[in-house]
Amino acid sequence: MDQPPAYNAEMPRQRPQLPSWTLTVVDAFDLTPGLRRVLFSTDRLADFAYKPGQDIVFFLPLENGETGRRHYTIRKLDRAAGTIAVDFVMHGSTPGPNFARQARAGDTVEVKGPRGRVVFNPDADWHLLTGDETCIPGILHILEEMPAGARAFAFIEVQDAGWHQPVETRADVAIEWIHRGNGPAGPSSVMLDRLSTFALPEGRGQALIIGETSNVRAQRHHLIGRGFARDQIASEGYWRPGRNGGHDHVDD
Ligand SMILES: Cc1cc2nc3c(=O)[nH]c(=O)nc-3n(C[C@H](O)[C@H](O)[C@H](O)COP(=O)(O)OP(=O)(O)OC[C@H]3O[C@@H](n4cnc5c(N)ncnc54)[C@H](O)[C@@H]3O)c2cc1C
What we know:
- With 252 residues, the chain is α/β, with parallel strands linked by helices.
- It folds into 2 domains: 20-115, Beta Barrel (Elongation Factor Tu (Ef-tu), domain 3), CATH 2.40.30.10; 126-249, Rossmann fold (3-Layer(aba) Sandwich).
- The protein has helices at residues 95-102, 136-145, 190-196, 213-225; strands at 20-32, 35-41, 55-61, 67-73, 76-78, 83-89, 108-115, 126-131, 151-158, 172-179, 205-212, 233-239, 248-249.
- α3 runs parallel beside α4 (213-225).
- The radius of gyration is 19 Å and the shape is globular.
């Protein structure tokens, strides 16, 4: 078998080859007024393995006729029903929401994944999870899958109470929905202000900080300022004004 070439700083960083899947729409419905769920099936569901918090990359039609990559979290995998649930924030007439709005049973879409380093650290004494609407699928799924005995604090920034959802979990979980009000989602101090008043529990915490990139960066720096080591924080920018698709590494 060929050996992979030794790493060379001048070599372009290769994207890992992610498995490809053709997903077929089974159903689509509004979960809450701003969040639309699409249920998918795939004929290779038995091979589909992932960790809560991971996402898949959708190849969606763009207005110019090309195809664009958009990341969406795996909200739930129901092996008995044979479905994968994905929840789309309906923030405008952009490729992601347009796809979810128009999705009809039998439609197909190409995706790659699962991807993402976000994993649960069982050694932590407690867990902190923060994010905005785009992070509801990831945060709720991680909380659902946390084992009994785990302790978690989740802060989710949303416009108003219309975004709240119940979550069933065996873990000891406190969820706080933080209302932004009528202002647009995006760069703001709403989450940072709340985090600043959060009294850190005893023991070693593990933080997952996701959402709009500048908000993620501000929270990461805040936690580092309060004594968090870098390996205690997993952070990723899920979107930012003016950026189409993709994601931002936030590791400074
Ligand atoms: C790992 C990962 C997991 C994610 N999981 C989910 C998920 O489960 N559900 C989900 O809805 N999103 C999720 N996102 C975020 C989603 O990929 C982005 O919001 C993406 O830009 C949406 O594509 P679009 O076609 O709607 O808009 P784009 O064409 O990408 O962007 C068009 C314009 O809309 C703005 N925009 C993008 N998203 C938002 C938003 N949420 N609110 C306001 N303005 C926005 C952009 O900044 C840009 O100006 C995830 C992102 C990552 C990286």
